[in-house]
Each structure stands twice: as structure tokens, then as C-alpha cells.
Amino acid sequence: MVQEGRLRLLRDDGRGLTLVLSPSAAIEPQDLPPLTHRRVRVAWKPAPGLTGGIAHRLALLD
């Protein structure tokens, strides 16, 4: 799921993870929708006050 700089990922173990795109990421929010249903690798860090984290880098795997 992608919405305004937020993305929800499904981990390999089946658990979901909600992330916010970092302003310093090399990808813009409008670039996220084409990644829906694609395998990506995400470099992210937990964020205080968020149940998920902040995505810093995304790389397409397939």
C-alpha cells in the first residue's frame, strides 16, 4: 500500500511494516505507486512516536 509518502510493506515472514518516506530519500512520494506488488529492499530506522519507521533507501529486487 502506498499513500502520500507512507508505505506498508509485507515482510518475508508475513508481518506488515508501515514506513514514512524520509525527506532525504532518493525517491519521491509520486515514485512509490509503481512499486506496488513489487519486491523491494528498504533501508529504514525505527522512529520515536511511530509504530513503524522511516524509509531512507529503496531498491527494486525484481
Tell me the major beta sheet: 5 strands, mixed
Taking pLDDT < 50 over at least 5 consecutive residues as the criterion, the unreliable ranges are: none
Count of DSSP H/I helices: 0
Number of strands: 5
The SSE order reads EEEEE
What percent strand?
over 45%
* Widest sheet, order of strands: 1-2-3-5-4
**Residue share in helix:** under 10%
Which structural class do you get from the secondary structure elements?
A: mainly beta
Oligomer: single chain
Distance between the termini: 18 Å
| Estimated radius of gyration | 11 Å
Morphology? globular
pLDDT averaged over residues: 90
Give descriptors for this structure.
single chain; 62 residues; mainly beta; 5-stranded mixed beta sheet; 5 strands
Explain this structure to me?
- With 62 residues, the chain is mainly β.
- 0% of the residues lie in helices and 45% in strands.
- The chain is built from no helices and 5 strands.
- The protein has a 5-stranded mixed sheet, with no helix packed on it.
- It is globular and about 30 Å long.
Briefly, what is this?
By secondary structure, the protein is an all-beta fold. It is 0% helix and 45% strand.
Task: Please write out the topology.
Layout (H helix, E strand, L loop, with lengths): L1 E2 L2 E5 L5 E6 L18 E7 L6 E8 L2
Parallel strand pairs: 3-5
Antiparallel strand pairs: 1-2, 2-3, 4-5
